[in-house]
Amino acid sequence: MHRVVRNEQQPKQAGPAAGALAPPVLELRNVDVAYHGDIRILQGLSMAVRPGLITGVIGPNGAGKSTALRTFYGLLKPVVGDVLIDGKAVTGMPPWRFIEHGIALVPQGRSLFNELSVEDNLRLACWTFRRDKARVAEALDRTYAQFPMLRERRSQAAGAMSGGQQRFLELGRALALQPRAVLLDEPTAMIAPKAASEIYEFVRELPRQGITVLLVDQNVRQCVRISDHLYVLELGRNKIDGSAQAFSEDSSLRDMIAEWIDYRIDA
Ligand SMILES: Nc1ncnc2c1ncn2[C@@H]1O[C@H](COP(=O)(O)OP(=O)(O)OP(=O)(O)O)[C@@H](O)[C@H]1O
């Protein structure tokens, strides 16, 4: 059974953050977020997504991980505090403008047009420059080179593919616009284990392509394994954050993570 291990008033920082000198691509600064009325789901939450790293966000069910990701992408507006891109406040900016800043989202759950072909789903990602046929063709070629499986299935209805294949199409659609950062919300939820492992291996390589990652995940084991920097949330607040190295070197933190993994396995 899961137990809350620490409940300090102040979040603990587990050692210096990896890439701590680079300014964040994205940042939440002391945000409070409410869905309805004045019940604040996030309270004083601060997080930074640093370039070239995978930043993982973990925490118990209902801790506010997905709410934080939606706030990062402008889908929820903070009641208090700010969202920043490259150090500049963009609080209240609508989600569709994030791609102009090179930031893409792969939301939780299925987001494809099931009846449309794989290729038409990719073409929709190119909507803003649809009249530039050469640019669309280049985006498709690049995506098919990265995901040969999608090229083979380009005429197939997206909804006829397996869950894992659909996830790769969603990733391909997000990457078609060559973002510098991608926000992933539970990328392997409801995906078979083998495909989930392939997705994590793919995500792990993204920084090598110059793509910064924010990964919100219930799969604590995989999130801890591939992240460079981890945030642990609890009840909508910062609990602990630090580099993956600091987590691996601190036995009390390891115990806490192990406890969560055990909890998840037993549940
Ligand atoms: N659309 C909504 N309207 C009202 N409350 C919501 C809404 N979405 C989430 N919540 C509440 O906000 C809190 C945080 O939810 P959130 O989905 O962000 O947590 P999470 O850490 O991502 O959880 P999980 O790991 O279970 O996905 C929960 O108490 C949840 O019930």
Please characterize this protein's 3D structure.
- With 267 residues, the chain is α/β, with parallel strands linked by helices.
- The chain has a domain at 21-114 and 180-266: Rossmann fold (3-Layer(aba) Sandwich).
- Helices cover 34% and strands 23% of the residues.
- It has helices spanning 65-72, 118-125, 133-146, 148-152, 163-175, 193-205, 220-226, 244-249, 251-266; strands spanning 12-14, 26-34, 40-49, 54-58, 80-85, 88-89, 103-106, 181-185, 212-216, 229-234, 237-243.
- The strands form two sheets. The chain has a seven-stranded mixed sheet with strand order 1-11-10-4-9-8-7, with helices on both faces. It has a four-stranded antiparallel sheet with strand order 3-2-5-6, covered by helices on one side.
- It is globular and about 50 Å long.
- The model is unreliable at 1-10, 15-19 and 263-267 (pLDDT under 50).
- Bound molecules: adenosine-5'-triphosphate (ATP).
- Adenosine-5'-triphosphate binds at residues 35-36, 41, 59, 61-67, 218.
Helix-strand layout with pairing:
Layout: E1 12-14, E2 26-34, E3 40-49, E4 54-58, H1 65-72, E5 80-85, E6 88-89, E7 103-106, H2 118-125, H3 133-146, H4 148-152, H5 163-175, E8 181-185, H6 193-205, E9 212-216, H7 220-226, E10 229-234, E11 237-243, H8 244-249, H9 251-266
Parallel strand pairs: 1-11, 4-9, 4-10, 7-8, 8-9
Antiparallel strand pairs: 2-3, 2-5, 5-6, 10-11
Helix pairs in contact: 2-5
The chain binds adenosine-5'-triphosphate (ATP).
Radius of gyration: 19 Å
Structural class: alpha/beta
User: Low-confidence parts lasting 5 or more residues at pLDDT below 50?
Assistant: 1-10, 15-19, 263-267
Q: Name the beta content range.
A: 15-25%
Organism: Zeimonas arvi
Keywords: Amino-acid transport, ATP-binding, Cell inner membrane, Cell membrane, Membrane, Nucleotide-binding, Transport
Domain ABC transporter: 26-260
Protein name: ABC transporter ATP-binding protein
